[in-house]
Amino acid sequence: MKWPADRISQSSPKSFGMYEKAMVLMADGKDVIHLEVGRPNFDTPLHIKEAAKKSLDEGNVHYGEFAGETKLRTAICDKLRSLNKLDASVNEVLVTNGLTHAAYAVFMAALDEGDEVILLEPYYPQHINKIELAGGVVVTAKLNSDDNFSIDKAAIEAKITPRTRMICVVNPANPTGRVYTKDELTIIADLAIEHDLLVISDEVYEQITYDGHLHISIASLPGMWERTFSMFAYTKAFAMDGWRLGYVVCQQKFMAALMKITVNDVAHVNVFIQEGAYAALTGPQECLTEMLADDDRRRQLVCQRLNDIPGIVCPAPEGTIYAFPDVSSFGKPCSQIANEILEATYVVTEAGTFYGPAGEGHLRICFGAEPYEVIEVAMDRLQKYFAT
Ligand SMILES: Cc1ncc(COP(=O)(O)O)c(C=O)c1O
């Protein structure tokens, strides 16, 4: 009996990084602090939960629309117009189980065996398996680490071949915390247009930006709506990671192919939770500002405390819930540093190389998942570790 299929055994192993090591310590009852898991530290706002509960109580328990409820997709279109400068119609929106599902559908619908997808490195590693399961090949192009991981035209151009099909952009960027400028996004747009490539744009952190950094959807640049899959989710800004709710927006001509995947793998997204998503978009938005202010406080704490440690340089993240400090001056591989920190202090950080070799010399520190006071304790422990 042959098991499993080649697409499983021949794709990269799935890794959850340092979390897997931390689980062993947690099972042992150790006082572990999680600075590696990228999830919000808040409960979902009450009005969103109430809307989903009400919908369930009202009996919305049967099959719904394959692309997502029209009411929700209409609200999404309003949001896209006002926040993303995208003038999409209801038929150009597909509601998905989080951004993960949107990305999987896009890769599955777009890639033939051997088609290449360019990831900007350090990259978000969870896109790799999706590309490989779809038959694609991951090609990496380094961001410019000498310039705060900015987009480097020459590095991307050098990786374009006749098999290149797509460029994947994560903006705001995990793990670097960058929010790309219009000029940087224009580099990608120009290359995509010149070489007739698709762009898949992961904008899961669109509403988490600081210090006036403005998130721009690459599809809003001239000539990009025609070739971009813009993906969003309720996951981060609305603290709805467990709800599994997101959406992808693209030209209507691409939609039938995407739905060939989603209709076969899930039919459609759970109907009553879509009422929660509708409430998230149309209800009070103060909760977003409050959560963002709280993230910002923890961001400032982490940056200040890390920069106070001799040898560490931590640029202020422009967006996301991650700091990406440079620890290269300690002269050890960053994976060794992350392991030593875990063993000596029970603080879980992620090695920069989890995001590709270009992440060497860095740690990724999530300031979004633990409360302020706990992060203070974590910083005390890191300070002690780096002093020895
Ligand atoms: C860049 C990026 N994309 C996608 C996701 C996953 O989003 P979702 O939970 O909506 O599938 C994450 C979660 O950490 C992420 O950091």
Characterise this structure:
The chain has helices at residues 6-9, 18-27, 46-57, 70-84, 98-110, 126-133, 153-157, 182-194, 252-265, 271-282, 286-307, 334-345, 372-387, and strands at 33-34, 93-96, 116-121, 137-142, 164-170, 198-202, 228-233, 246-249, 322-323, 347-348, 350-351, 363-366. Helix 5 crosses helix 9 and helix 12 crosses helix 13. Helix content is 40%, strand content 13%. The model has no long low-confidence stretch (mean pLDDT 97). The chain has two domains: 6-44 and 286-387, Aspartate Aminotransferase, domain 1 (Alpha-Beta Complex); 47-282, Type I PLP-dependent aspartate aminotransferase-like (Major domain) (Aspartate Aminotransferase, domain 2). The strands form three sheets. A seven-stranded mixed β-sheet has the order 2-8-7-6-5-3-4, sandwiched between helices. A three-stranded antiparallel β-sheet has the order 9-12-11, with helices on one face. A two-stranded parallel ribbon has the order 1-10. The longest helix is centred in the C-terminal third of the chain and has 22 residues, at 286-307. It contains 13 helices and twelve strands. By secondary structure, the chain is α/β, with parallel strands linked by helices. Bound molecules: pyridoxal-5'-phosphate. Residues 38, 98-100, 124, 170, 174, 202, 204, 233, 235, 241, 246 line the site of pyridoxal-5'-phosphate.
